Amino acid sequence: MRKADRLFQIVQILRRTSRPVTADAIASELETSKRSVYRDIAALMAQRVPIRGEAGMGYVLDGGFDLPPLMLTADEIDAVALGAQWVAGHGDPALARAARDVLAKVAAVLPEEMRGFLEDPSARTPPAWDSAEDKVDAAQLRHAIRAARKLALRYVDPTGAQTERIVWPLVIGYLEAVRVLIGWCELRKGFRTFRLDRIEHVVFLDEPIPSDPGRLRRKWRATLGVPKPL
User: Fold this and answer.
1) Has residue 216 got a pLDDT over 90?
2) Do the Cβ atoms of 62 and 51 come closer than 8 Å?
3) How far, CA to CA in Å, does 138 sit from each of 4, 13, 173, 176, 180?
């Protein structure tokens, strides 16, 4: 691996986490020696890359540092294209629009010789599904999630039975054939998943969620997978 590529990869490794990363861990991932890592870290610091730490303790990259997007590799371009194409084909209209905008912004800053990887990526997604129309605006649900506000839902299960529920919205999931809302249901006293095409009516309440949403999301992820849609 060239030194320039190695320096770039070290920055990428450090930016993944806010915890110190040891020279041993970096050397193992890059398949190089600790001595080389020490020299590379010193070179990065000399170039004013905001790395803190020392040998034996680990290294941290301070927040706010970024690299120009021109340094994307071919695999990273494929990853961006694959993710954005999937969202453009499977996301709600607002996210689909945002995904197309992302591709346009990336294309605008890529050098000419790399642009072909984005326009004709080696990784592709299948066409979007022909799903039932959502009865609630996913963009408004995302706003409620970010604002940590409760929702009042009228939901119809597969048997046609309707229930009224107060839900603490946490995540919007994009499954293979449906979009779903995952949240804490006050009626069932647990995490539940609601298909957006089965939500008959929603009221966005001003009442805040009485718990830290990040903690709830971590608790949900610790459960046995995504709850089965009702």
Assistant:
1) yes
2) yes
3) 43, 34, 10, 16, 9
| Banded model confidence at residue 162, pLDDT cuts 50, 70, 90 | very high
Say which DSSP state 55 is in: T
**pLDDT at site 192:** 94
Q: Do 61 and 48 touch, CB atoms closer than 8 A? A: no
For position 225, what pLDDT does the model report? 55
Task: Report the number of secondary-structure helices (H) and strands (E) in the chain.
Answer: 8, 7
DSSP 21: B
Question: Would you list the domain boundaries of the chain?
Answer: 3-61, 70-119, 138-221
Strand, coil or helix: 174:
strand
Q: First-to-last CA distance in the chain?
A: 51
Integer Cα distance of 144 and 199 in angstroms = 15
The pLDDT of residue 191: 94
Name, in order, each residue with C-beta under 8 angstroms of 65's C-beta and a sequence gap of 6 or more: 11, 15, 49, 50
Cβ within 8 Å of residue 8, ≥6 positions away: 67, 71
Residue 27 pLDDT: 92
| 3-state secondary structure at position 171 | strand
CATH class of 3-61: mainly alpha
| Total residue count of the chain as it appears in this document | 230
For 81, list phi and psi in degrees, rounded to 5. -65, -45
- Report the CATH fold assignment for 138-221: SH3 type barrels. (2.30.30)
